[in-house]
Amino acid sequence: MSQFTGNHVLSVNQFDRDAIEKIFHVAHSMEPYARRQKRTTVLDGAILGNLFFEPSTRTRVSFGTAFNLLGGEVRETTGMSSSALAKGESLFDTARVLSGYSDIIAMRHPQAGSVAEFSEGSRVPVLNGGDGANEHPTQALLDLFTIKRELEYNGKQIDGLHIAMIGDLRYGRTVHSLSKLLCLYKNIHFTLISPKELAMPDNVISAIENAGHKLTVTNQIEGVVNADICYQTRIQEERFTSQAEANKYRGRFRLNQSIYTRHFQSKTVIMHPLPRDSRMEANELDNDLNSNPNLAIFRQADNGVLVRMALFALTLGVDDLVSKYEREVVWYTNKSQSL
Ligand code: NCD
Q1: Residue with the nearest Cα to atom 7 of ligand 1?
Q2: For a 10 Å CB count at each end of the chain, is N or C smaller?
Q3: What are the E-state strand segments in the chain?
Q4: Angle, CA 300 vertex, CA 278 and CA 284 arms, to 5°
Q5: Is the shortest distance between the CB of 274 and ligand 1 below 6 Å?
Q6: Residue ranges of domains in the chain, CATH in brackets
Q7: Does ligand 1 have an atom closer than 6 angstroms to the CB of 58?
Q8: Which stretch of DSSP H or E encloses residue 274?
């Protein structure tokens, strides 16, 4: 039994550096299974309740894939209107019932604090897949895992990192959670680039300041000097009062190869939690960056499976048993190629 066994994952605030190292160590050990060099049935018979009450593609599917890769089964519900929440059922009741059908639950919901509220009624561990504009702890862990890996290629480490976060820092839950995790490291330089109206919330700014990190706040992409990581975000249009309001900001901070060459170092790693808004009026990460080797967005998305496998294995207390239940892979696969 580890500190993770049986516990919810609701916020990044529950982790310290040792816990993060442990998660990353287990995530790394999941690579042969994610790459189909081996398979494991350690979670044979276990059921994941994958409850997504808000749109999602990669978070939902990567939670499901991660559970399947460990040999477990996935039961899923998507959308609010097709669930009993639309009939007035409380989060507590839904949790009481669905936790009877599952061994673990992953959940996304549009309201801040909803996943924590749900967890109070749950009889099984609950992993927060995003609660409104509040937090997205598993994304932050996979982002940090990606940052660590990408920096290692460049001979650097997380301590001393300069990260530029760009776009909708007000409603973007991924940058809230990632910033808080980065506060655990040493000498981080945060350059926060957003329109004033979409600035990082005060509680995150205070966390950065209280941890003694360097902070640059600007509304100009020209303000970035020597960033190691450029973390681009999407305008979270679903959190605005109207489409017209969101449209005021879409396309404000586009990034393409020529802007990248002008404002970033030749090794600056480009990240984005995805989806990138590729419509003409937004085009926040242009397709001309696709051949840039520093574009890490698809490696980042792949890493989501490793980190979520690690969280499942740790939470269900099987992280030491994964290889004991190992089998051969017999089908054709070329997943060992790197992106
Ligand atoms: C993010 C989210 O849902 O917060 N996506 C994701 O989970 N990978 C970011 C976004 O939707 O813009």
Answers
A1: 59
A2: N
A3: 38-40, 47-52, 73-78, 104-109, 126-131, 162-166, 189-193, 214-218, 229-232, 269-271, 326-328
A4: 20
A5: yes
A6: 12-136+304-334 (3.40.50.1370), 137-299 (3.40.50.1370)
A7: yes
A8: none
Predicted confidence (pLDDT) per residue in 57-70, tens digit: 999 999 999 999 99
Question: Is the four-CA dihedral 168, 174, 176, 180 of positive or negative sign?
Answer: negative
Ligand 1: distance of its center to the CA of 53 in Å? 14
Q: Does residue 299 contact residue 146 with C-beta atoms inside 8 Å?
A: yes
Ligand 1 in reach of 72 Cβ (< 6 A)? no
Q: What is the pTM of this model?
A: 0.97
- Verify whether ligand 1 is closer than 6 Å to residue 109 (CB atom): no
Cα three-residue angle 327-316-14, rounded to 5 degrees: 130
The candidate with the shortest Cα–Cα distance to 227, out of 259, 183, 249, is 259
Burial per residue of 237-251, b for 16 or more beta-carbon CB atoms within 10 angstroms, e otherwise: bebbeeeeebeebbe
SS3 category, 148: helix
Return the exposure string of 72-111: e unless at least 16 CB atoms fall within 10 Å of the residue's CB, then b.
bebeebeeeeebebeeeeebeebbeebbeebbbbbbbbee
Tell me if 234 CB under 6 Å of ligand 1.
yes
- Pocket residue to mutate for ligand 1, from 142, 165, 174, most atoms within 8 A of Cβ: 174
> How long a stretch of residues is the chain?
339
Q: List phi, psi (to 5°) of 169.
A: -85, -10
> Counting atoms of ligand 1 from 1, which one is nearest the CA of 233?
12
